[in-house]
Design a protein that fits this description.
Blueprint lengths: L22 E4 L4 H5 L4 E4 L23 H13 L19 H4 L2 H9 L1 H7 L1 H9 L12 H16 L12
Antiparallel strand pairs: 1-2
Helix pairs in contact: 2-7, 4-5, 4-7, 5-6
Bound molecules: heme C.
């Protein structure tokens, strides 16, 4: 028998074998809690509810399966979410949902490779800079492979039903 000491909001995972079928009462050793109803029952014969155990009403968000798209998503979540959201509203930079409809792949490739050059020469980039408080997107030093993966991920987002992908990391 072992005891784990848990402070407020701490948690632990325990594994154990149950030698005999039955219902086992579970309490913490601060028995005043039990007297107020903090009692659990571990039953060996209760069946888990067969219905969906998710307790919220949100549909599960879609996830890509193609390896490049998955990599693009992971990179996006670690490098880009500080300034961009997928569909949760404007941050320092634009929402990326719909970006493959606004821009061609060639444009996106040039942008991701060298935003500073595009901001000098490309009219659409200049207009965007103005809209975003003249904050130029810093060059992210992306490799060609990474750029392809981001663009694949953007296409994947735009192929999902509108509003289905929020991807602020937590979803
Ligand atoms: C420091 C903030 C910042 C970071 C980090 C950042 N961006 Fe940006 N991004 C911007 C801003 C601001 C714009 C709007 C143009 C401008 O003002 O330069 C932009 C524009 C864009 C656009 C064009 C959107 C459109 O509607 O045409 C794309 C695509 C983009 N960023 C992708 C990325 C990717 C991919 C990453 C991560 C590798 C990234 N950004 C990281 C700030 C950022």
């Amino acid at each position: 028998m072992q005891t784990v000491l848990l402070g407020s909001s701490n948690s632990a995972t325990v594994e154990f074998m149950i030698p005999e079928a039955g219902s086992y009462i579970m309490v913490d050793h601060h028995f005043a809690n039990a007297s107020q109803g903090a009692i659990g029952l571990i039953s060996t014969d209760a069946k888990p509810e067969s219905k969906d155990l998710e307790h919220h009403n949100l549909p599960a968000s879609a996830a890509p399966s193609d390896p490049d798209t998955v990599q693009g998503k992971l990179n996006f979540e670690s490098k880009c979410l500080a300034c961009h959201s997928v569909g949760d509203g404007r941050k320092l930079g634009p929402v990326v949902a719909g970006v493959t409809k606004r821009r061609s792949d060639v444009w996106l490739t040039r942008w991701l490779k060298a935003p500073e050059k595009m901001l000098e020469a490309d009219a659409d980039a200049k207009a965007m800079l103005k809209e975003f408080n003249n904050l130029p997107m810093p060059n992210q030093s992306l490799s060609d492979v990474e750029i392809k993966q981001y663009i694949k991920y953007f296409h994947w987002i735009d192929a999902q039903p509108a509003g289905a992908v929020k991807a602020s990391g937590a979803h």
